[in-house]
User: Fold these one by one.
Assistant:
Number 1:
Amino acid sequence: MVGVVWAAVMQVRLFLGGHVGLAGFGENLPCRLGLANFRNPALAGWEHVQPAWIAHTWTGESCPPEFSTALFAQAAGKWLTPLLGYPGALDLRALGVVFGLLVGVVCGLLVAVVPGRPLVRAGFASAVGLLYADAAFAGYLISPHAEPTALVAAGFLVVALLLVWERPTAPRVVATAVPALLVIGARPEYVTFVPVIAFALLWVPGRRIVALMVATWIAGLGVFHVVTETGFDDHRAVFQTILHDDPTAAADLASLGLDPALAPAAGLSRDDAAWVSFADRYHRTAHPSPLRVAGFYATHPWHLIRTVGWGLQGVAGLRPNYLGSYPEGAGKPEGGQEHRITVYSAIWEVFRAGPLLVPVLWIVTAGAGWLVVRRRSLTPSEKATGRLAVVLPGAALAQFAVVVLVHGRVETVRHMAMTSWLTAMCLPVAAVAVTLVLTRLRPVPRWQHRHESCASIHSQMDEIKG
């Protein structure tokens, strides 16, 4: 029932009174499906949501050779577009319908796998549904970006991990790979989920060989995804981040192996007219790798502190403030943003006022989860929630680190979408973990704990034999 309610809420939230979404062209990702969006030339692309994409044969135009698991969702949307009566070859509103229904499925599954009384389970699932419905994330569901596929798949990954940790069977372990691969393959920087998921699968009593096999498979595909992607854009990481307002630009360029004569280009983007005079010299110089940039941060702590600060501001921002939510003709100003549901956005005012509270939330969540895992009086299902509380901040921190390294301060809020979602998920998960710690203060004797563990193992073996 909870899943059905949230599936309906998402449809109403996205479409009632006119559809809303998120402007932008997702790095032109749908072009890989033979689609194009010839937008109004007077607009830059960030003002209005433009859902209709038409069939187009790309011959000489720029269509980046990029693969993403989001293409599977967009291909499904392309098939559904005529069935739902939408115009064009792909209408992003079809994606909104599908993703909204999938959010309901996630909420329904959470009710089934989260421990506690029915009211507690329904409350936790509704908190997750409210997160997807919040204005900070709902717009992605009607957009050409890769984020909606990753965000919805991450919800299924949470469900799968809770099932594996509660009772680790081979089918459950293998089934975890499906949402994991959808998340990892959505964007190159989501490769940070590889070690996190590997750790989560190995943090399972028994079945370690199967878990190791699945973890290795995911790791191999994740590395392949990164290697086959386009090269690292050092311009954003160096010129628009490290050299931004940098009084020692020439020396820092030399430390990075770049031409110090490029120091006057510090802070310039490729769209700046002044960059033209530096473009040729930039292309003829050696370009640092991500490892070289990471080494620079390790030896220049002041730059590291600055960049981490920009990253925390990106997580605290939660929602890109330059991407519109409404289509053209909706009677809204250019770049106008909707505020239909803003519960998490309102809570985030605390983090906007103090971005350093973001890592505090990570630490509190992980600490509460560790206490839950260590408490002997809790059931396997309750301890699974504790493991989730430990893994979520780890995933958020890993994703935060790679976004800071690769994108720096360029469109930080949008690139931190997954980090922000994981951080927001910490709120309901931490609440459950803290509740479990406070309501189960009486420890169980060690001999009784061993007896219960043996009984649980024998029960699992009987089920497998059956």
Number 2:
Amino acid sequence: MRWNQQSALDPTSGADAGSDADTEAGTEAAGADAPPAELFGLKGLVRSVRTPEFAGVTFHEVLAKSALNKVPAASSMPFTWTINPYRGCSHACVYCFARSTHRYLDLDSGEDFDRQVIVKVNTPEVLAAEVAKPKWSRELVALGTNTDPYQRAEGRYSLMPGIITALAEHGTAMSVLTKGTLLRRDLPLLARAKEDVDVEISMSIAVYDDALQQTIEPGTPTTTARLATVRAAANLGFDVTVFLMPVMPKLTDSVDHLDAALRAIKEAGASRVVYGALHLRPGAREWFFAWLEREHPELLPRYRRMYAKSSYASKDYRAWLSRRINPLIDTYDLRGSADDDYPMTRRKDRMQAAAASSTLTHAASLTPPPQEALF
């Protein structure tokens, strides 16, 4: 397949973030700012944009030096490379583990994370150059590991079609993890990519109570809409994984909630479930506790005790959760794994498969910074 002939989903065919039309529209409709290059200490900052469609959100458009992030060798993550075209996320999930990364930009991990979104507008072009290098190892690249690639900003900037195309054209497998129903726009493109490379799709759906979902994930699509996206992907032949995580003590860990969740996931056509208990890193912890104090003050003392010494739920709680959820997973034939034991085995499998299927040497010429370094 010649990927450069797939013009129907070319990201430049719609609202191109770098086009003159978009620049004029953004300036007239929203009063686009041209901030000094040293704003937030970022090099490559082009402008900051506010638009009526995204009330209260500012997009800071930057030119990235690299698209690929190398995951440290010591990490237990099941992949070696990631791409994060956005930093910050308008999904505004109270528990989001990535909140603390905004502190590297001298922004706070609360409202700034939700409302000050960094957009690497040249990601597709930079990525295409990186994966075209002769020594690129063609290892799987993970999308959605830090902030969501299909958050609402993607509807404006359309970076993902170019990213998918660049990876597929250069024989690179990819995985996509999202809460965004905008994924449906790119399902035909991902299905074409799947003809040539391994493509994994995962949908994150943690809450199956509409009222709770709207208060704890106020910027996300509804659970019903995400389940419909799972169905759409499954209908195209994808074995979709649903990330039932985080499971939150006394909020989403009842038998009734878990049973309803797994039933809905099965009916949507998913192939498996990965689950995991809530973990609260610094940055997310404070924001989550503030939400608890507003919405469920009766639970705040319990959570303070549970997460007093660690970002992770206790081993006892995780063991208890496994005993509760595993029989339900078996009932619905959605055998996946707990997040605790998922990464190590999958990364080992990936590395062995890559070594067996390719004679290419390791991508020594590709030396992007660790994931925490943004640009």
Number 3:
Amino acid sequence: MASELIHRNQTTPQSSPNISPGTPSSPVRNWKTPFRYVAQKQRFFFVLVGIAIAALFFNSFPVSTSSLFQELSGGGGGSGLIAGSVSGLGAESSEVTRRVLYEAYTEGFRGRNVAATGKVPLGLKKKNLRIVVTGGAGFVGSHLVDRLIARGDSVIVVDNFFTGRKENLMHHFGNPKFELIRHDVVEPILLEVDQIYHLACPASPVHYKFNPVKTIKTNVVGTLNMLGLAKRVGARFLLTSTSEVYGDPLQHPQVETYWGNVNPIGVRSCYDEGKRTAETLTMDYHRSLGIEVRIARIFNTYGPRMCIDDGRVVSNFVAQALRKEPMTVYGDGKQTRSFQYVSDLVEGLIRLMEGDHVGPFNLGNPGEFTMLELAEVVQEAIDPNAKIEFRPNTEDDPHKRKPDISKAKQLLGWEPTISLRKGLPLMVSDFRQRIFGTPKTLIGGGATA
């Protein structure tokens, strides 16, 4: 019984009939056993062997740098000299060669003024720029588009046509350098551009009081969206702010360092405080994220393509005089304003964008007129018999407004060149044609618009 249990539970080793216990193993089996073991149990060993082989190969056969030499020699800014000096180092030290090539490559790009923030070397640009103008179908925006396209840049206009008009841009339709997008800047948009002129916002009391919530959203959310676009694509950003940030000023004339006297809960605050917030956002993006920004504070501007009934004093007076209606003067007519022609403003905006200074900069004509004096100039240009009608003044209307443009003169080399008596007839000609449909003619000795 015991032998039967042993037989069932134990396996008796069976010796090979051909190999005796004292006979050595076959040599073939002896050399195969270690490699089989390594292959099965020591796979990491082969990883190390592979790394060693790869290192030996790349040290023996360095990577070709001919394409890098071609890039450096073909570029501007002295890159060819860098490539030539690198090629003379010799092939005996590939490690040193690769290190020097890397340094030369990065230096070559620095020589081309390509910065991480996308700064465009405007003074030495070799290609036309791609520029977006928000609010480009408006009065000032359309004149800016004209200038940019005339110098050869490609322009994308973004406008929701709340106050802008397609008629202001029709002469560019069909131009391959011009694009028009119907879009509200309150919603984000992604475009590949070099510069952003952010003009989008209703600028007249009639328009921004009509929808004050929309106005402040355009100033705040719209500016945030455009600054975000500038950050994503590395574009330079210009904000068109306003002299309204000074409110009803206690300082006269107003300099850029003056902080203003603004009613934060008044009927004009949607525009005044909205632009002040837009300036804050612009400077915060500049300081914290390194975005290239420019800020212009625009004073009263007039010229062709102004909205005829937008409530601004120049357009009101001109339209009323042409229609043989009394010119409405609010208050006693002794409040003052400064008026610049639109082409002067456009020149200032372009100089600011292409300059090296952030701002803010006052852009306006320091020539100061009372409302009564302005009415007299309109009478001279249109109808000496035009009547003047006085009405109660509007709420929060500033009593004095005159820019100090010393900073713009010194740093931008800019100052207005067209006086009110010279520029107003150009506007009158445009208004006459739009109101009555008559051809533009010489009015009051001025040229056609």
